[in-house]
Predict the 3D structure of the following.
Amino acid sequence: MSNVNNQRSFVGFLVAGAIALIIAIAGFYWFFTKSPVKIASTSQPGAAIFVSKLAPIMVSLLTNPERLQSLEHEGELSKLKTSLLAKSGIDYKQDIQPWLGNEITLSVTTLDIDRDVENGQQPGYLMALATDEPEKSREFLDLLFSKRVLAGANLAVEQYEGVKLIYANSQPEQDFLAGAVVDGFVLFANDPKVLRDAINNVQAPDLNLTSSPKYQKATQQLPQGVFATAFLNLPIVAKWQGLEIPEITYDSQIISLLLNPKGLLAETEFLTDSEIFPPSSPLSKPVGALQYIPDTAGLVISSSHLHNLGNSDLAKLWTQAKTAISGSGTDIISRLIQPLAEVEKSKSINLAEDIFSWVKGEYALALLPHEGQTIPDWIFVVERLEDVPAGISRLDAIASANGLSTSSLSLDQQKITAWTELAAATKQTDTKERPSFAIEAKVQGVHTTLGNYEIFAANLETLNEVITAKKNSLIDDRSFQDSIAALSQPNQGYIYLDWTKSQGLLERQLPILKLVEIVGKPFFNNLRSLTLSSYGSETGSLKGGVLFRFNQ
């Protein structure tokens, strides 16, 4: 019985293996030297000919795993291969390594193999391993299925369109494994029908992914040095996950992973048939407002022309993405920027109308986590253009309407405007005379002018950190400089997340993150920061990148 259980687990290990392999690469990347190892890779996935252009997702490793061996610190890749195959009865070095080529591709080919809603949804999985030695590959298949038969599985062999298919299922679990060698690839699937469809896709080229104009456009623009890619059919992925996205602007996405001296770079391109517009002209240098953001910030968003953001390509992408991430239209954004959401809720401020509408120059928004605080402090820096004074007057009026007083004070010889809530407090006395009172002012927000920028902050302590920390600004921080150096310019600005400072905050606001961290433990244990940027739009696409930096 144990042998049956061991053998029937092989499909699961194949599926987990492709995903885990790429995670593992990222997970032990931090052991890289400053001069990364060059990895020979194929230009694009050859296995795309087996995959339907209606498939939800295809993930490909475009190099032989042995070429990644030099990335290891303590044999992480070897341990991964051993653990994935431990229950299969297969020895990687003896049975797979002699013939394995420069590609491993995994695809979810269909949401339901038999398209029968009454018996539940059973996705189709296809794994394609490039082979340099077809004969040795066939010997491997014979060995694999012989072991399954010895473990009690039922074996079947058929010829389909000139290709020999082998498949077996373990009773009573009905756990299928099907295999074949086709056009330089060893194919595995969780059902014979998936293999037959893969062969049909080769023989009818208009059916496979390579015939998709969007896939062709995306792969033609893959950057040099890519070692892994993922292509997603976004509407079908949403359906697979049971999500109802009200408006799908971007219908396809390609992600490319590259090794960079500064970290692990993920470049992505979203494809659409809709007309899209960037929020502003691309920036050729970092936003000047970052000079007023302390390097203690955990999350920073910097760009320009906030007043255009609502109708831009980025806004449309965010509307689609936040639903996919959270399953709703508001949950994820309200949690991530909870401090601003609280301001909007409690102070009767409409962020889009009362603030964003007059921010027509540079801006930077930062959250500063502090130990013991559930909600971090915030800083908002705005370039002082002609609409800013009127915008500030509007905020003063809103503060007054909410019962707050606008007061001027001096902080380290810097003139500060504070919105305060006044309250009477009883003073303790030792006599029985009438009580004595004092006026207490609770600060609800502050702002001041520095250079050509207006700085808003949650409280005096945070604003004081800005005023006194000019030599410790984020823009002068070496880690931040290294992060943005790896991303393309010009661009639309940056979202910078210091993982070491923000981990606790993010875990509180996004409880599901703890589960993700368990799955990708090596990755998150050594993650230092991540930086996102949009490279602007062109007809039919939106490009961007994410740089992951790790502790050395």
Q: What stands out?
A: Residues 10-27 form the longest helix (18 residues). The mean pLDDT is 78.
